[in-house]
Amino acid sequence: MATVSPVFGTTQSIKGLLDHTIVDKFRDLPQNGKIAAEYVWLGGTGADLRSKTKTLDKIPKSPADLPKWNYDGSSTGQAPGTDSEVYLVARAIYKDPFRGGDNILVMADAYEPPRQIADDKMSELKPIPTNTRFACMKVMEDEKVKAEEPWFGIEQEYTLLNSVTKWPLGWPACGYPGPQGPYYCSAGAGCAIGREIVEAHLKCCYYAGINISGVNAEVMPAQWEFQVGPCQGMDAGDQLWMSRYILLRLGEMFNVDVTLDPKPIPGDWNGAGGHCNYSTNSTRKEGTGWDAIKEQIAKLEKRHAVHIAGYGEGNERRLTGKHETSSMHEFSWGVANRGASIRVGRTVPVDKCGYYEDRRPSSNLDPYVVTKLIAETTLLM
Ligand code: ADP
Ligand code: MN
Ligand code: MN
Ligand code: MN
Ligand code: MN
């Protein structure tokens, strides 16, 4: 196992010595027909993203054209060293904003190594326990679910940290900024902290083909939000995970840490959520949609505890009933109510159709788990 010598400090401080402008000199060199595919997958904690590069000889048209691959699962907490191979299957392709050109980012998921399975029997592959995408795919592929064309719009809140002190970016060393109030959707030095990263992320997502629908500064300084969606079915989870990967890569370049912790600073500071906006053919249908929404909410109420259990680690630190959250212990819903589990927009009862917002998921949500639960509860129960 590699160790970092204390003489050199952390890897972060070594990174600070590197000059990014040197890399830029080689970025536009021709690649002699080669294409770099960066395979990205979920590691063993369920919250970590891992990736490695595979060189291809031609441009793939779809994920099915991409070779199956494998990695050392003993190094990601996903397999024993004695039988360490984990199998990777490509699922979605995005343009790579870092390498540019024809290079791609690939969202992949992980399976037990095929022992005697021919390539045409991929359906017999067994997902490893941390492959949450697989169960999500099973639900999204259900005929009833497909017919309803479920759309998800996920609001990803996150907090930027000084990578050396691990304290929010731009906050006074060993101290706190002025109380919350001026920061949400703000502009100005000392208010909107870290916009360089937010802007770079927005452009990278557009380029990659991620359906990013907006960005805004959040209530706590150094906290930001972006939204991905509406995306149908599996695209929601795939795109949100890939947008997070892009954010981590930008953090690397700016030497800034990104945390998805649901309550990075205890006390009178807003936590970070991952609200999930949701609609289906039934809820979007004029006239009857509002009734369909009320039926779906009643189903969600019955499975509150199951949803909460899958809505993010440490969410109990955030869902206190304060700071624009609902209590974790009771289910509630309301029109325009930001203190409820589910918020229905003002226009929905008027238009008699539309979408609603599940405010319970925390910022570190696994979108495969959350979208699976919502589709399952509202469409299959
Ligand atoms: P908020 O008012 O809660 O801050 P945002 O504007 O941040 O809401 O996010 C709303 C999200 O809902 C966006 O990602 C948007 O694309 C998504 N959305 C819009 N219409 C629908 C719909 N019909 N179904 C699902 N999601 C939707
Ligand atoms: Mn090796
Ligand atoms: Mn929002
Ligand atoms: Mn928000
Ligand atoms: Mn919201």
UniProtKB/TrEMBL annotation:
ATP-binding keyword on record: yes
Enzyme Commission designation: 6.3.1.2
Stretches assigned to the GS beta-grasp domain: 35-115
Residues covered by the GS catalytic domain: 132-381
Stretches that traverse the bilayer: none
Subcellular location: Cytoplasm
Entries under PANTHER family matching the protein: GLUTAMINE SYNTHETASE, GLUTAMINE SYNTHETASE CYTOSOLIC ISOZYME 1-1
Name recorded for this polypeptide: Glutamine synthetase
